[in-house]
Amino acid sequence: MSNRGWYQGDGIGLVDDKGRVSIPAALRQTLSLNWPKANGKDGGTVIVGAHQKHRCLVAYDPGYLDVLAGKLESREAAHPNEDGETDYNIKRRAAVGEAVPFDGSGRFIMPAFSRFYAGIKEHAFFYGTLDYIEIWNPAKLVETDGYPDVVKDMARFYMAEKGVQL
């Protein structure tokens, strides 16, 4: 994974009634570096799906699929069911994703089920976690137990800039 860029950065995106939202610039740049368009133009493809544990979304470039599959195979091998059988839910939870195009300004249409699952309405908080991007309903993030306070404070900060208190 040494040739891959790391997802670092954060920000709030306004979500319109069709589900269009823009990926913050620093995160968009990494998406484009990790999976450039064949024709050399701006934009690209982002895979968006449900997080395996939290009520948020994950987003990543198509090249990360091989990395993710390797991690999931290792997790399956290390954590079989009580009867020794493979825990098939390990991959099932991670397989929920849809590849969608984004334009040069990072705009993409968030899949409808993904928005529903994460409870994303008017605002989406983007947070780079090195391997992938998490996309949250800011209010749900702040309410999530066990999540780092510094990230919750980021969401509060960006929402306060928009005039919304969490």
Element layout with pairings:
Elements: E1 10-14, E2 20-22, H1 25-34, E3 44-50, E4 57-60, H2 64-78, H3 89-94, E5 97-102, E6 107-109, H4 112-118, E7 123-128, E8 133-136, H5 138-143, H6 149-161
Antiparallel strand pairs: 1-7, 2-6, 3-4, 3-5, 4-8, 7-8
Number of helices: 6
Identify low-pLDDT runs.
Answer: none
Strand order of the largest sheet: 1-7-8-4-3-5
User: Could you describe the largest sheet, including whether it forms a barrel?
Assistant: 6 strands, antiparallel
Helix-residue proportion:
25-40%
Taking the alpha carbons of the first and last residues, their distance comes to 37 Å
Mean pLDDT: 91
Order of helices and strands: EEHEEHHEEHEEHH
Count every beta strand, where a strand is a DSSP E run of 2 or more residues.
Answer: 8
Shape: globular
Précis, in short:
The protein is of the alpha+beta class and 166 residues long.
Q: Can you put this structure into words, describing what you see?
A:
This protein is an alpha+beta fold and 166 residues long. Helix content is 34%, strand content 23%. The chain has 6 helices and 8 strands; from the N terminus they run E-E-H-E-E-H-H-E-E-H-E-E-H-H. The chain has a 6-stranded antiparallel beta sheet, with helices on both faces. Strand 3 and strand 4 (57-60) form a beta hairpin. The radius of gyration is 16 Å and the shape is globular. The model has no long low-confidence stretch (mean pLDDT 91).
